[in-house]
Each structure stands twice: as C-alpha cells, then as structure tokens.
Design goal:
The chain is mainly α. It contains 16 helices and 4 strands. Helix content is about 60%, strand content about 5%.
C-alpha cells in the first residue's frame, strides 16, 4: 500500500457543512480545496483513474450528497508506509512482553508446585510472585491445572533437549556422562537465576485425566529418548524388559539430581555430575563380591501388623500419596480404593494428616529394620549393602508394599512435618552411607563418594514402586535380575 499526498478540488452541493466521506482502500492523506470547505477527506479511488468518487454517509438531519466529481490536480507522491513500519515493532514488543511474563509465571508456579504440590499451591501466591492479581494469571492460563501442565511440559522439553545433545556422544558411557553434565549446567544456571525453575515430576497424576494423559504421553516420549541413550554396539545385550528397567532407573536418578545439588555450591555441580555418573555407570559395589548372586545375605521382613484393616489403610494411602501427592490423596479416594465408607475411614484414623504421618513412619521403620539387621550381621559391607537393597526393593514389589516415596514429603501441609520427614529420610541415607565407609575399610567397596552413592541407591529403592508401569508382569524373582543387579553393579553390567 502507498501513502500519497493528493491535491484535489471538489464541489459540495446542498450541504451546510463539509461532508464526512468514507473510504475503503490504501491509507491516504489529502487536502481539500473547494468552494464550500477545505478539510481532510478520505477517498475511494482506482489507481488507474484520475477521477475519484466520494462515498458519503450523511449525518442525521442532513440531505444526501449529490453526485460530485473530484478531479485530480497535482502530483502523486509515494512515501514509505508508516503504518506498516510502526505496527511490526509494536507487535514484536507485545510478543516479547507476553512471552516474558509467561516465562515468569511458569518460573513462579514451578517453585510453588515443588514446595506445596499441585493441589496445595495457590494461584494468588503465584500471581503475587510476579506482581499480578489472580485474574492476570488466568489471562495466560485459564486454570491452575493448565498452568501445572504447562510447567510439566516445559520440564519434559528441557530434559529432552539435554538428551538430544547427549546422544551426540560416541558411546553409552560418554552419553550418560554428558547427560548428567548438561543437567548440572542447567541446574546451576537455574540456581544463579539465569533460567526459570523446572517442576519435578512427582505430582503428575494429580492432574485431571485429560491433562494427565497429555503429560504422560510426553513423558513416555521422554522415556524412549532416555532408552535410546542406553543403546549402542558397546552396550550389553539386554532384553526389552531389562532395557526398560534400566531406563526407569536412570531417569529416576536424574529426576532426583536437583535435590542432591542443593547440598553444594553451583560451581560444584559439575563434580556432583561426575560422581553420580560414576555410580550409575559402574555400580556402587565391587563386582567380584556379587558375581554369583547379590542376595547372599538374607534379611527377614518386619512382622506383619496385628490389625490388618489399619495396615490396609496405610498401604492404600501410601499408594495414592505416591501417585497424587498429599492433597491429591483425598479421604474419598483412599476409602474408594478399599471399597470402604468414610465412616470406616474415620473409625480407624483420626484425620488424613495422621494417616499420612503414619505412612511415613511405617516406611522409615521398614528401612530401619533392614538396616539394623545388616549392621548387626557379620560379613563384608559389600554384602550388607546388597542385602539391604535387595530386601527393600523386594518389599516394595510385595503385597505389603509400597513404601512412601521420599519426594512425597514436599507436599505435606505443615513446615514442621516436612522438616521432620526430611530429617528422617536424611538419617536413613546417612546410615546407608556409613555402610559404604565401612566398605572402604574392609576393601569390599570401591572408592567413591559415600553420600552420593547412598543417595543414588536410595533413589533406586524409591523408584522400584513404579517399576511395574514400565515392566508389566514383573515378578519378585525377575526384579533381582532386571533391577537390583544394575542398581548395584551399574548400567553397564550384563543382564
């Protein structure tokens, strides 16, 4: 479109005031010189003609403008279209502002979701963190669940991008090392405030079915990308179930990496990545001590509870909290899982908070039980570590399982309760780390970071509760071969 200056002359008939002329076409600026008036008008014209016709819509009380001819006088002067040059920068500026605020909202939301869970986080707190009111958030995301889904999809996309770079490495060990190195760089940039926070994947199933289905499909795609990381001519020959089990192990450890990084400075994240990679790839025990069977020491399970109904409520609540977080595991859902009424729930439990507290305590008691047995038993530390790991993973897969995942503590409603659960978890990990230190002394465990290795093993034990999602039909006998073995000996060991 051209913007032109046109000198025109026109005659206005039977009209007290100058006409208001409507024009459709390129934007023009004109000056009218006529008998009746001199004022800007808009013209409807053909570019091939020097005759211009007025299209006039009279105001109320005015008579219609009679046929009038405007004769072209002067020279058409072409200019650069100002409207176009201005609109593009304005549109780009608006887009940048929109994306900038959207990123800020996702960052604030991820922090709230990580601390309180999807159910516990409030839009008003997310809005306040970015200087908006709640209605301002809904301009970008209609519901809190939509916002949570966007956070999860962002985390999945970021992780997939890292995997894409890691796949460029020449072999499986280099790929895994590269993946954790890139993950450490990403988390360090987040800690320094250079990148937005990423949400953890622990609360995925608390979303409505339609959103959860979308997130799960994206997560399955992420799972396949991680599985590709473990394929190669240099990799051990594995069955499909074994490859899926190791993929789940690797992805679970990666998901817990951010929690471990909080123990050190961002400048040390690269060293942390090296130590985690070493434990994941090469194992945490000496293969010469476990070449026949990692379960050389048999530990007894804790005695069954005297009240089976109370125990069933504990198992049901544990399962739901693992899947949907504290607030997602409602009294109605726990009761429905057992085909029980709410009246029966409150007969056996004072409140949901008390029940979930008991779930955590039950899980820690099981872990302490196996650790105490191993500590009292004579033998090498290598064998004790293998026995504790095997016993806890088997318990997870048994009818008495699962155990409550450590990540579930973040969604508890009270800060005091969260700290108490976190301290209990850290103490269990510390006891496992002491077994590694004992192993250094008796030469049954290779040199490694005991805290990182214990945390990696604890993550593997936690993740066993979801193993059947990726290896359907898994039996307790299969779990030793498919999952316990790579947890102890590393991803590069034979099946």
């Amino acid at each position: 479109m051209l913007e032109v200056d046109v000198q025109i002359a026109c005659k206005i008939v039977d009209l007290k005031q100058s006409p208001v002329v409507r024009w459709r076409g390129p934007c023009l600026r004109e000056r009218m010189n006529g008998e009746a008036a001199s004022k800007p008008v808009n013209l409807m014209a053909s570019s091939n003609s020097r005759s211009y016709g007025l299209c006039y819509k009279p105001m109320r009380g005015e008579r219609r403008l009679e046929a009038t001819t405007i004769t072209y006088q002067g020279t058409l002067v072409t200019k650069k279209p100002k409207s176009t040059s201005k609109s593009k920068p304005n549109a780009a500026l608006k887009t940048r502002r929109f994306e900038g605020m959207r990123t800020a909202i996702l960052d604030a939301a991820a922090r709230q979701f990580n601390e309180h869970g999807v159910k516990g986080a409030a839009l008003i707190d997310i809005a306040a963190a970015v200087g908006l009111v709640t209605s301002g958030i809904t301009y970008y995301f209609q519901k809190k669940e939509d916002l949570a889904a966007a956070c999860l999809l962002t985390s999945i996309a970021e992780t997939k991008a890292l995997l894409g770079q890691a796949l460029e490495a020449p072999n499986v060990p280099k790929r895994v090392e590269r993946f954790f190195s890139l993950l450490a760089e990403l988390l360090a940039s987040i800690e320094r405030g250079e990148r937005p926070t990423l949400i953890s994947f622990s609360d995925t199933r608390s979303l409505p079915d339609a959103l959860a289905s979308t997130i799960f499909s994206a997560y399955v795609d992420l799972f396949r990308s991680v599985r590709t990381l473990l394929k190669g001519v240099d990799a051990p020959e594995l069955s499909h179930d074994a490859l899926n089990a190791r993929t789940h192990l690797l992805l679970s450890i990666a998901n817990n990496f951010s929690g471990w990084s909080e123990r050190c400075e961002p400048s040390q994240y690269a060293r942390l990545a090296e130590r985690v990679s070493d434990a994941v790839l090469h194992g945490i025990v000496d293969p010469s001590f476990t070449s026949s069977d990692p379960d050389t020491l048999v530990l007894l399970e804790p005695a069954a509870a005297s009240d089976e109904t109370s125990e069933s409520f504990l198992r049901a609540a544990t399962e739901l909290v693992n899947e949907q977080g504290y607030r997602g595991a409602s009294v109605d859902k726990i009761s429905a899982l057992l085909n029980a009424t709410k009246g029966k729930f409150y007969y056996y439990n004072e409140t949901k908070f008390d029940l979930v507290t008991d779930c955590f305590e039950r899980s820690f008691e099981v872990q302490r039980h196996f650790l105490s047995q191993a500590e009292r038993t004579k033998g090498t530390s290598n064998t004790k570590i293998a026995a504790v790991t095997t016993s806890l993973i088997r318990f997870q897969m048994s009818d008495r399982g699962p155990l409550l995942r450590g990540s579930g503590f973040s969604a508890l409603p009270g800060q005091e309760q969260r700290l108490r659960v976190f301290r209990s978890m850290e103490r269990v990990i510390e006891r496992m780390a002491n077994l590694f230190i004992d192993g250094f002394l008796d030469s049954s465990v290779r040199a490694q970071d005991p805290t990182i290795s214990a945390s990696t093993l604890y993550s593997a034990i936690n993740a066993a509760s979801e193993l059947r999602n990726w290896v359907p039909g898994l039996t307790p006998d299969d779990v030793d071969r498919l999952y316990v073995r790579p947890s102890l000996l590393g991803l590069l060991c034979d099946e």
